[in-house]
């Protein structure tokens, strides 16, 4: 028997709530697992994976999920409060990413190793630089009058779309990091595949959220 439109809508909403809840758990659980693995403080390098996991897995994911109508932890608050929380989390993510980048650069310098010679290094550098540009671009949403020919709705849409690109770059950097000798030596078998699924899951949830925002905007125009 075919599902009614109302039943399909409820099922779809339930799936979005479940996937959003899973994204929250993964966003927190992945950095926690990295912390156990890296043992921050045991070496200079140990801070790099933890800071990058905090930046791109936890802080940035939570900053984007704040605007989810189903799974935002602040959905009962006003949009103004959510925007401020988004800004705070994004700035913290950028700070962690910059510290992580600085630490690995200095660590390679101490050990006489080349800088940004792997796909992980290049993608990570690009993700950090992009995050900085994205934060700077977010200023336009605070002062939309600077862009007189753009509506606030269009600025929000493009900011969300470009933010998705930056988020995917960050997730790609995490996944490439899990292909490194350090990670593959410590994590093997099914655990490695499970770890790789973490950024994939959060990426799918965030992409769905952004695409829904785009579809909502298109419908509101008609």
Automatic annotation (TrEMBL):
Claim: Kinase is one of the keywords in the record: no
Entry protein name: ascorbate ferrireductase (transmembrane)
EC number annotated for this UniProt entry: 7.2.1.3
Topological type in the membrane: Multi-pass membrane protein
Transmembrane stretches, start-end: 21-38, 44-67, 87-106, 118-143, 164-184, 190-210
Keyword Hydrolase listed: no
Domain Cytochrome b561: 14-217
Source species of the chain: Neopipo cinnamomea
Cofactor: heme b
Keywords: Electron transport, Heme, Iron, Membrane, Metal-binding, Transmembrane, Transmembrane helix, Transport
GO CC annotation terms, alphabetical: endoplasmic reticulum; membrane
Pfam family, one: Cytochrom_B561
Top-tier EC class: translocase
Top-rank taxon: Eukaryota
Any GO MF annotation of the entry: transmembrane monodehydroascorbate reductase activity
Subcellular localization(s) per the UniProt record: Membrane
């Amino acid at each position: 028997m075919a599902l009614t439109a109302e039943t399909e809508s409820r099922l779809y909403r339930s799936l979005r709530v479940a996937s959003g809840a899973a994204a929250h758990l993964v966003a927190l659980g992945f950095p926690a697992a990295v912390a156990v693995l890296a043992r921050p403080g045991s070496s200079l390098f140990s801070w790099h994976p933890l800071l990058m996991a905090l930046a791109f897995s936890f802080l940035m994911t939570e900053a984007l999920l704040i605007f989810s109508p189903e799974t935002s932890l602040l959905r009962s608050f006003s949009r103004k409060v959510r925007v401020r929380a988004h800004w705070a989390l994004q700035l913290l993510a950028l700070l962690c990413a910059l510290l992580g980048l600085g630490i690995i650069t200095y660590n390679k310098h101490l050990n006489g190793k080349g800088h940004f010679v792997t796909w992980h290094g290049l993608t990570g550098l690009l993700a950090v630089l992009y995050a900085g540009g994205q934060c700077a671009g977010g200023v336009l949403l605070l002062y939309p009058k600077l862009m007189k020919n753009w509506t606030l709705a269009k600025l929000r849409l493009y900011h969300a779309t470009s933010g998705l690109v930056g988020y995917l770059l960050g997730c790609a950097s995490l996944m490439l990091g899990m292909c490194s000798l350090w990670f593959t030596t410590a994590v093997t078998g099914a655990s490695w595949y499970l770890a790789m699924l973490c950024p994939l899951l959060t990426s799918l949830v965030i992409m769905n959220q952004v695409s829904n925002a785009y579809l909502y905007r298109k419908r509101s125009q008609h």
